[in-house]
Amino acid sequence: MRFLLRPVRHGVVLNYLGQLMVLLGAGLVVSALVAVATTEWLMLLVHLLAAGMAAVAGWLLRRITVESAIRPVEALVVAGLIYVLVTLGLAPIMHAGGLAWDDAIFEAMSSCTTTGLTMIGDTAGVSRTLLFTRALMQWYGGLGFVILTLAVLVPPGTSASRLLMTQLEKGEVLPSAVAAARSLAHVYAAYTAAIIVLLLVTGMGVFDALCHGLATVSTGGFSTRSTSLAGDGLATLVVLIPFMLLGGWPLAMYRRWRSEGISAVLRDAQVRLLTLLAVVWIATSLVLFRTTDAGLEHGVADAVFLGFSLQTGTGFTTVDPSTLSVAGKLMMLLPMNIGGALGSTAGAIKIYRLLVLAALLRMTIFRTVLPPAVVKPFMVAGRSLGRDEVETVAAFVIGYLALLGLSTACFAAAGLDPLDALFECSSALGASGFTVGLASRRMAVWQKLLLTFNMWVGRIEIIPAALVLYPPIWMGRRRREV
Nearest CA to 123 among 135, 112, 115? Predict the structure, then answer.
């Protein structure tokens, strides 16, 4: 099999990464404008330098390489490496904002992967430009740097469908990758603008509304307040909930909604199960708030908001997880590791894969009672799945749980509470952003780097991460093209 392996073409990978770096530079210019508005001149200089370096590096990569049709493995590698490059580009900005280098790398990765874990314990004395940059990078990472690049920089007719498919559901039909990316970007931007306006209507300040709006549809969860949304009015929570749900839906659902109407949403198996699970966590939270966590004085609004935020992986909260009982933390672990729909801005295992595993279990049970000659197709959400796709899902779940278990074991071996360690590792790998307080500047450097690695793997997923880290992909013998 190694002999048959086709290594990535370095020039093709660098060419597409160059396009993505140009887009990063453009985004940092937006943050520079915020620095002007807030008269933070040091942050203005840092953002302009970082934007210039990213744009020049991207332009040079485009100049010294040749654009070519990208292969599936190359698309996965590009989609994985861009988060590393963005992290390296953002780290100096975070460092200039007062974070140590290890904290800056952690914060940068948490931003672009839409995780929401933070090294900033108190946002009161933090640069407002830095807070905006965190939210903006979550917005970029939520839709996907790949989709934004296709929508903004790539001309129509370019062969980029394989690159786009790394961000969408399996089996999604795309007659034009660039047109589809632009359509998704327009809808994503419209939803973002809508939630910002609605937050302003609820009385939230302009800066806070802007940052929370960027971090909601992207299911990023970074807040401008140290206590997230604790203390905010009911109107703010009501406005946020439907947009958190939109973030947990498949990105392609926006296109189907526009073309087929609301019926496309109602009959989607992932959307239905996501909503059902959110209701289950709401009901469970209500029971816990009346029993084991009754002393915290949380009400119905807290339970409803927590349920939707958990299942969509947004990370906004009115409840401090560190104050919850063991039962409360265990309850939160389930939705944090399930996540949103496949092809959404959320992380974790994803609902579609749970449907596949449930169908596999059902099929295994049926095969024990059906005659051997009976052939039953493997159907999930109205689609017929082949053996390869089922094996890929099983491999993903095994890899996800293995990495989660190993990471938790490392933290527990260092003397940390096993449940808290599992909670924090689940938050990083599942890109949910909830914390019981372990993720802080007090952590050892290796612990921060381990969580940073988990955030990266959780965003790009296990298989692409394994490909990026597999040496033969980069150095294997090249077979002559036929």
Answer: 135
